[in-house]
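lol forgot to send this yesterday, sorry. struct tokens for the thing we talked abt
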């Protein structure tokens, strides 16, 4: 099974920045039509403008290479024509309305990319219950809700395969310290998507779960501190992380090829953490405790 997106619709949440914006550009280059979501309408419009340019040059290049040839009519689709759908994923009614709008715009989504997310930097004992719930809502319940509402639109006699790309995290595989809610939400997403992968095959919907490790985006600055407010401080791991464009390209290729899972931007340390979590959990806990001590536990310290 392979997902074709040329001239078909790809809906991306968290498309206003970071990995999501790069996924949008990559899908535009590949000839897809896009629905871009996030809260920041201006940022979405800026990404959409970049995608229009990329779509036009991609369709021009495809047209030129096919000129005089057999001419695969309609295969390159209409260049551009992307849509922005700005809404807050924390708002349940807005989520329901957005699904209705996305389906009305597209008539059917070839690839749903559930990428929006927010991280955390604080000990569990200091994190407010509201902040914990907020992270669970955005990172786990919102994507589950969108998938639930989207399922009836797939598999109604269509022969083309469709897909869901669920952006989990290295934190969906290991117990990264000072990220209790984020780790809980991403582990839940990992488990949930592994079940859906089997259940949705009958509808010819492929589910790919992505596990990026450290990617150079605004995720650390936007991460919630103990009081539930964005900390506004970057992490060395994220500052020195992988290029989001390269990560997006890897994620999109894996989902179009209907891979079950894709890892990206894993460092030696991430690989070790994964092995230690699975096989030496006691040792991993001691290393995590040492890391917490070295970072300090107060909000003003990293
Ligand atoms: N960067 C990394 O190292 C890394 C590693 C592993 C996994 N990930 C995952 O990758 C995904 C993308 O993160 P990123 O690194 O690209 O960070 P980012 O640049 O901060 O992107 C987060 C995206 O989520 C959207 N978002 C946040 N709150 C939202 C809300 N309430 N409603 C709707 N959209 C909301 C943001 O859009 P608005 O601000 O416009 O709402 C933004 O587009 C996340 O799921 C993250 O957990 C990242």
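and heres what i got for the seq, position by position
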């Amino acid at each position: 099974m392979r997902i074709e997106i040329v001239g078909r619709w790809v809906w991306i949440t968290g498309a206003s920045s970071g990995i999501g914006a790069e996924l949008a550009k990559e899908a535009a280059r590949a000839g897809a039509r896009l629905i871009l979501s996030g809260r920041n309408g201006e940022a979405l419009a800026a990404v959409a403008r970049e995608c229009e340019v990329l779509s036009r040059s991609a369709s021009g290049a495809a047209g030129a290479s096919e000129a005089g040839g057999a001419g695969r009519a309609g295969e390159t689709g209409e260049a551009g024509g992307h849509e922005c759908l700005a809404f807050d994923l924390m708002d349940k009614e807005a989520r329901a309305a957005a699904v209705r709008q996305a389906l009305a715009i597209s008539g059917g989504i070839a690839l749903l990319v559930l990428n929006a997310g927010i991280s955390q930097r604080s000990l569990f004992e200091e994190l407010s219950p509201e902040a914990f719930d907020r992270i669970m809502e955005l990172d786990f319940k919102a994507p589950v809700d969108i998938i639930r509402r989207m399922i009836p639109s797939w598999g109604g006699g269509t022969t083309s395969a469709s897909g869901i790309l669920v952006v989990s995290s290295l934190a969906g595989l290991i117990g990264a310290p000072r990220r209790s809610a984020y780790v809980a939400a991403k582990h839940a997403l990992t488990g949930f998507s592994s079940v859906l992968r089997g259940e949705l095959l009958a509808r010819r919907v492929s589910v790919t779960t992505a596990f990026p490790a450290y990617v150079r985006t605004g995720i650390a600055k936007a991460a919630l501190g103990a009081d539930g407010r964005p900390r506004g401080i970057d992490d060395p791991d994220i500052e020195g992380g992988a290029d989001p464009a390269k990560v997006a390209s890897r994620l999109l290729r894996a989902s179009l090829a209907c891979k079950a899972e894709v890892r990206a931007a894993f460092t030696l340390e991430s690989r070790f953490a994964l092995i230690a979590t699975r096989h030496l959990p006691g040792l991993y806990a001691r290393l995590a405790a040492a890391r917490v001590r070295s970072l300090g536990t107060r909000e003003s310290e990293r």
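Residues 284 and 290 are 10 Å apart (CA to CA). anyway ping me if u want another try
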